[in-house]
Amino acid sequence: MSKDNQVLEEITSKEYEHGWTVNLETDEAPKGLNEDIVRFISAKKGEPEWLLEWRLKAFRAWLQMTEPTWPNVHYPAINYQDIIYYSAPKQKKTANSLDEVDPELLKTFEKLGISLTEQKRLTGVAVDAVLDSVSVATTFKEKLAEMGIIFCSFSEAVKEHPELVKKYLGSVVPMNDNYFAALNSAVFSDGSFCYIPKGVRCPMELSTYFRINAANTGQFERTLIVADEGSYVSYLEGCTAPMRDENQLHAAVVELYALKDAEIKYSTVQNWYPGDKEGKGGIYNFVTKRGLCAGDHSKISWTQVETGSAITWKYPSCILKGDYSSGEFYSVAVTNNYQQADTGTKMVHIGKHTRSRIVSKGISAGKSQNSYRGQVHVLKRAAHARNFSQCDSLLMGDQCGAHTFPYIDIENPTAKVEHEATTSKIGEDQIFYCLQRGIDEEAAVALIVNGYAKEVLNQLPMEFAVEAQKLLALTLEGSVG
Amino acid sequence: MSVTSASPLSKDALVALPATATDAWTEQRAKARQALLKNGLPAARSEEYRFTPVLRSLEKKFSPRQLAGYTEGTSLPALDAHLIPGFDAYRLVFINGTFDATRSTDLSGIPGITIQPLFNAKPMLNLADVEADAFTALNTGFGTHGLAIEVAPGTRLAKPLLVWHGQKSDSPAAFHTRLQIKLGAASEATLVEKFDTEGSGDVFHTFVEEIEVGEQAKLQYCKIQNDAGQVTQIANTVIRQADSSRIDTFTFTFDGKLVRNNFQIVIDGENCESHFFGLYLVKGNTLVDNHTVVDHKKPNSFSNEMYKGVMDGQSKGVFNGKIFVRPHAQKTNAFQSNRNILLSDTATVNTKPQLEIWADDVKCSHGCTSGQLDEEAMFYLQSRGISKSAARAMLLYAFAGEVIQPLFDETLKHYIDQLVSQKLH
Q1: Do the Cβ atoms of B281 and B255 come closer than 8 Å?
Q2: Quick check: B352 and A408 CB within 8 A?
Q3: Which residues of chain A are within 8 Å of residue B340 when distances are taken between CB atoms?
Q4: Which of residues A445 and B216 earns the better pLDDT score?
Q5: pLDDT by residue (tens digit) across A388-400?
Q6: How far apart are CA A65 and CA A249, in angstroms?
Q7: What is the pLDDT of residue A422?
Q8: H/E element holding B421?
Q9: Residues of B in contact with A423 (CB under 8 A)
Q10: Which end of chain A is more exposed for a tag (fewer CB within 10 A), N or C?
Q11: What is the separation of C-alpha A326 from the centre of its chain, rounded to a whole number of angstroms?
């Protein structure tokens, strides 16, 4: 037992490795939120009138809304007037090549291990990097453009492809969808936009990298991915933030729109700063993610590895509108120390013969609380819908909690829906088995945890899987209760 | 929001509730009334009553004053027709919410059991929380009839207790009944509750029962809800288990307009064993809502829960099963499963199995399914000359069998079997 504790302590005392900051000159809005700030952000981005109107509408809707209290998380009230809603690294003009980008900025991303330099084609991943609230660089743009793929920052898309943005913005997550989505719609500062034309299979992984750098800021980015008929895209998202004592708010919106026969695969490795061991600081990650399978035979797949954030509140969902469309949700959520996670998914079956699959693996350690909350809703006309859900929880330590709140609402008799959940700890017999075969305790736990999460990790693109596995090992190795 | 405030049973309108009685329960009643005025009746959007629009169904028929208790227009239901044939039991009869001593068995000579009118003395138990459910509050505030049953330590009751609730009304009626039962250490008892309603009137019945199962005591419990009438029944059951006790419960729901069972088990002892079975087999416009809570407060206990539902017509099935494992309730084994079959296009099911675990060395699982009858199984039977309807009944009977088979009494099992077969044809 003492050895277990020792190992556990060693692991849990590991510091957050992305906790540094860089001194970048930033362009900031004053603290607080009112219509003027919304106008300020819109003006800063040089936005057209319709978008400003849209923002203001969202802002007015937000004023009428109240913060949700139903998630199984607890935090002191957020003062929305104490947040800086716009912070951008100072740039003289739009950078066309990386030579023009602030070297300090490049260093930031180098530290993160993200290649912005196109020469480094090792990873073969096109990256759109978002620092604080602004997209700073997008790589491989030209190569993608040859195939007709649009991959750029959100503000750029507003300028260059207004017709697409106007058509799809808010079509999956309406501006007044929920409290945080409305807030985001009012003050979002940038994000990524991606459009895959008909029949095109995107040749490389597209990726967004988010980082909050400045203090007192909130990050509100928006991602919009549209996959036209018969196209395919795989999208990756990663995030980190510096260590700060105060809590920072991250309220993003991700919208996926899949037309007929299209497929979107969206993977996230979320590693926001989770706060220190006493639960001080950390990111509040209140994110709305939703995909719409609009066309027949379309498919949307969410994969997430959630290791960071003081509080996670997110439910990547699929609206299965097209007949024969399918949705998938694979998740590993790890909480340690005082982290709280309330995450899951929503599968709304509208079309006939729609299928969905949910695999959620929660791991809680320390004094953390980890909740799965999900809904499978089969509407009346969704004949022959099929769902399988599995959510397992692994508990490490006797002071953490694991909770599941699955809602299963069936209005059609031909639906076949199954839900399974288990809660357990790593068995002493499993450890013993490994020890017997000369595998030490730490390696045994890593083995078991990785095996436990394998079903989800397998879904990640290779580059991400390695990172995710490392993250898991970092947080949990040796935590035998 | 505005819809609710306009309701004749809105929070503000509840001020019109009558004053509570002055008796041994004065203190509890006053508290309950306050809770009711503070919290109101559950609105359509409340999480606990999300799929069960109880307020909407009540507000059309009852004023606040009537809600507190109203029995004008009730008449005597046919008792014999509802008895379980061949089931030998000590009988306790409630007619239209009133305890009827003349139709009940006189238990004064039976050793080891005492039965008292509930409201003559201060509460023997205090398990049902008036803050937790508005209908517990309503019952506590305005209930006038109930029984306090005490089984002495070491007693093994020779016959089961049959509590029969019979009611008949052709106009709206409302009543509130209550039981408190205390099983002493190492005692054993069987409790069967049966609910039957006749007449065309809208009947609103709240029922609260609080049961304490002492150390090493054993309780077998069976509830049969078969209200043919327009009944809205809200039953709040709380059972607390002490060390090494065992309970087996069965809840069968076959009819009614809206039936809500709040069934809470508090496992407040070590080495307890608890089994819960439920079957809801409904059609027409019936709504059955089973909300169960299994609260593991102490280590080393085992619980197993299985609820099954068959919904036909426009009926609705709602299931919410919570399992709590409190900190330090280590070595808990808790299992739950909920399976549903929808037979018609208009039937729905809303199920929410919920696990909340705060201890690490536990084994807990839940599973739930929804589907229709297996086409291949149907084909198999039909290809052997069995008619479609008989094949369907056969498969459904087998489905239901899993929760009937473990029943503790053969006569009872036979009776339920017959009821189920009747309902399936």
Answers
A1: no
A2: yes
A3: 410
A4: B216
A5: 999 899 888 788 8
A6: 18
A7: 87
A8: helix B410-424
A9: 355, 357, 362-365
A10: N
A11: 20
Question: Please, are residues A266 and A172 in contact by the beta-carbon 8 Å criterion?
Answer: no
Amino acid identity, position A271: N
Whole-Å CA distances, A124 to A127, A139, B173, B410: 9, 10, 74, 71
Residue contact A406–B352, C-beta within 8 A? yes
Q: Which of B130, B144, B150 is nearest to B178 (CA)?
A: B144
Half-sphere exposure of B248 (CA within 13 A, CB side): 13
Q: Quick one: which of B346, B279, B341 has its CA closest to B315?
A: B346
3-state secondary structure of A369: strand
Q: Do the Cβ atoms of A254 and A221 come closer than 8 Å?
A: no
Residue A170: which of A65, A80, A262, A288 has the closest Cα?
A288
Percent of chain A with pLDDT over 90: 33
Which residue intervals of B44-131 are DSSP H helices? Answer: 54-59, 64-67
C-alpha–C-alpha distance, residues B336 and B415, integer Å: 26
Mean pLDDT in chain A?
81
- Range A17-36 average pLDDT: 70
Tell me what pLDDT residue A119 has: 37
Could you give the 3-state DSSP secondary structure of residue B404? helix
Greatest Cα pair distance in chain B: 69
Q: How high is the pLDDT of residue A90?
A: 59
The per-residue DSSP string of A220-288 comes to -EEEEEEE-TT-EEEEEEEEE----SSEEEE--EEEEEE-TT-EEEEEEEE------TTS-SEEEEEEE
Tokens of B163: 């509590």
What is the Cα gyration radius of chain B? 21
Residue A428 touches chain B, beta carbons under 8 Å: no
What's residue B4's pLDDT? 44
Which residue reads 């049902």 in tokens? Answer: B128
- Residue B86's CB: how many other CB atoms inside 10 A? 10
A430 touches chain B (CB under 8 A): no
What is the token pair recorded at A118? 């196109």
Q: How many other C-beta atoms lie within 10 A of the C-beta of residue A42?
A: 21
Q: Give the residue on B whose Cα is nearest the Cα of A371.
A: B356
Q: Quick count: other Cβ atoms within 10 Å of Cβ B39?
A: 17
Size of interface A-B (CB pairs under 8 A): 113
DSSP assignment letter at A352: T
Q: Which residue has the higher pLDDT, A192 or A141?
A: A192
A261-275, A353-367, A452-466: which range is least confident on average? Answer: A452-466
A410/B345 touch (CB, cutoff 8 Å), yes or no: no
- A429: helix, strand or coil: helix
Which positions in chain B touch A367 (Cβ < 8 Å)? none
Q: For A79-88, A152-161, B50-59, B231-240, which range has the lowest pLDDT when averaged over its residues?
A: A79-88
Note the pLDDT of residue A463: 66
pLDDT of residue B394: 92
* Core vs surface per residue A445-459: b (16+ CB within 10 A) or e: bbebbbebbeebbeb
Q: Which residues of chain B have pLDDT under 50?
A: 1-4
What is the tens place of the pLDDT at every residue in A65-78? 888 888 888 888 88
**Chain A residues near residue B326 by CB distance under 8 angstroms:** none
